[in-house]
Amino acid sequence: MRTKLVMGNWKMHGNLQTNEVLLARLLAGWGEGRAAGLAVCVPTPYLAQTQNLLRGSAIGWGAQNVSKHLSGAYTGEVSASMLLDFGCQYVLIGHSERRAIYGETDSVAAAKFSAALSAGLIPVLCVGETLVERESGVTEEVIARQLDAVLELAGTQGFGRAVVAYEPVWAIGTGKTASPEQAQAVHANIRQRLAEHDAHLAAKLQLLYGGSVKASNAAELFAMPDIDGALVGGASLVAEEFLAIGQAACA
Ligand code: 13P
Asked: Angle 104-108-113 (CA atoms, 0-180°, nearest 5)?
């Protein structure tokens, strides 16, 4: 039985003041003993604030990006060990916005995944197809390619301490959610693909769905056998919405 995980991706939103209010509300609404995990991936400058406010709580936290390098002359980059210094447990890898806007390739995502793993972080590998790719019927191929790049570099065992998030690009920030059946089909395919390498590991892997998840559609998504939680963008900025999604994951 896999524990569900609801993770917020704040993207480039927030400031010291609004973060404090949001995190206080999450702390008030999410105590120990919940059946699901709750975590937030915040902008890097707010990791210290997040660590100070969430330390010792039932809510985990992480970052949205990491360098593929361990250290060195890489101006503007942040290493995995730096994220670890601020108590991060998670880091998003290969989010579609990083792939589309910053040209992150499958191999860069794989290198970042490995850097995160070797520092002791839990990489949350984001995969997903664009609308054009879905309409051309190549969803499975695209996701296989994104997974295979990581499998080649990190090996199957790399997924033993990782999370995978399926985020169809066409459903991100658009209000269009994949139907529970559409998402389930892709999740089952991802699990099957990994099971070909290691069935036990694949059965334990947490597979999150992301793309316009809200309190109103979370329960039907979580009812699917291979959907183990959500990676939530916009709705994670509204405490009540995010908590309600977390609550749906406990059902
Ligand atoms: P939305 O929930 O705003 O669609 O964003 C999804 C996402 O990209 C989470 O990483």
From this structure: 115
